[in-house]
Amino acid sequence: MRDMKAALRKLEHENADLKFLNSQYVHKVRALEKDSKTMSDRIQQLQEKNLHAVVQTPGGRKRNIPFRRQRMDIDATVPPASALHTQVSSEAEDPYIADLLKVADKRIENLESEVGVCTQELET
After folding, report:
1. Does 15 have pLDDT greater than 90?
2. Is the CB of residue 17 less than 8 Å from the CB of residue 11?
3. Widest CA span of the chain, in angstroms?
4. pLDDT-based confidence at 115, cuts 50/70/90?
5. Cβ distance 65 to 53 under 8 Å?
6. Where are the beta strands (DSSP E) in the chain?
7. Is the pTM value of this prediction over 0.85?
């Protein structure tokens, strides 16, 4: 009985030590995440600062004009190609959708031929 109580106390102390160590690691991870965010914000500021265009006006003045960075929020990833093909084939069973696809394909071919004609006219 005495050995079991001693083993229990030992395990409780070890459990308390592990909980303390875990809290220390959580605190360190949060601090590192905060530092990482600060550094990434600073890097982004420097990159944006580096992307400023210098425009010289006729009066001899130089002006910094910032480029606008395009941003995109991605809500979900694209489904795998195999899943995409199954969706298209199931949608193509509807004759109305199939007709729309044919009309779109014909329109694409017409526009491509017009582009070809325009480029030939520009070359000559």
Report:
1. yes
2. no
3. 103
4. very high
5. yes
6. 52-56, 62-66
7. no
- Under 8 Å between Cβ of 82 and 68: no
Q: Which residue has the higher pLDDT, 123 or 18?
A: 18
Could you write out the DSSP letters of every residue in 60-94?
A: S-EEEEEPPPP-----SPPPPHHHHHHHHHHHTTS
Per-residue pLDDT at 83 exceeds 80: no
d(C-alpha 91, C-alpha 96), whole Å: 10
Residues 6+ apart with CB under 8 A from 54: 62, 63, 64, 65
> What gap in Å lies between CA 42 and CA 25, rounded to an integer?
25
Dihedral over alpha carbons 100, 105, 109, 112 (to 10 degrees): 100
